[in-house]
Amino acid sequence: MATVTVPFQEVQKLIEEKLVSAGVSSEHATKVAEVLVHADLRGVNSHGALRTEHYMKRLNAGGINPTPTIVFNRTGPSTGVVDGDDGFGHIVADRAINHAIEMAKENGVGMVTVMNSSHCGALSYFVENATNHKLIGIAMTHTDKIVVPFGGKESFLGTNPIAYGIPGKLEKPFILDMATSNVALGKILQHKEEGKEIPNGWGVDETGASVTDPAKVVSLTPFGGPKGSGLSIIVDIFSGLLAGMAFGPHISPMYKEFERKRKLGHYFCVINPSYFTDIGVFLEQVDKMINEIREVPAVKEFENVLVPGEIEQKNEERNRQEGVRIAATTYEYLKK
Length: 336
Known about the structure:
The protein is α+β, with helices and mostly antiparallel strands. It has one domain: Malate/L-lactate/L-sulpholactate dehydrogenase, NADPH binding domain (Ribosomal Protein S8, Chain: A, domain 1), CATH 3.30.1370.60. The protein has ten helices and twelve strands. Strand 2 and strand 3 (79-83) form a beta hairpin. Helix 1 (8-21) packs antiparallel against helix 2 (26-41) and helix 4 runs parallel beside helix 5. The chain is globular.
């Protein structure tokens, strides 16, 4: 499938225009577009502009509230709950992490659960926000079932991503953003859109056998066998049960029933290092750790050792200058 390279500002503007045309406020459209382009800049196209058409389908069918009344209920000095009123998850999650940041600055820790939300995009955007304040960010969200539990043949778990953001002093933040499946479903969809085969082990058919044709994928597999499967359950508990939302097979599907509100949950935790240790020493030690990891001798298959998030950060530096690479069909859709 052909791809095109487009200035990220143009892509963001086109996404905003699409959403505004469907009744989304300019403020909300700008934020959603910013989160999507954040993913494209980092080279995580599965969570970027590619998603716009899907969101438009849900908006037009009534599955996303274009004008939500988002409410924050502070339940304690360091805790709170955000009710997203079925709006865009990107907006709802942004509100939640900002409340968690405020509480962490005030009291050392801020923890916020989110209810009645929808797909919120790349979690790296939100934990990176925390690191911009020299705070630690943690984010989790659940999804509808698409992953087989370890040893199972039928799906029960979602891709259930988790993300951590750790600030450094001079180094860019340590950002770990990963699905608890071997790969995010969006990457399967991206390969299908681009007409490419997927690596063995990413997805299985209805018999549980691994396939390389993305069109034949029925379920995904957890990373690391029982370890990824167990971590996925934890994510579902924190972002689903703790938020009073559904879990696993009880979550409404993303790519069916477009008229149905998804009622997703998220979990955010922000930690202020200065409440636990000397902030200056902490930030310096993070830099030291990152640099020492890079200095570890690499095996012959690798040029050097990288820390999580480093590839994406390099992608972003380049793509801000050269433009983001997106599927030609996505670009044509945005321009319609």
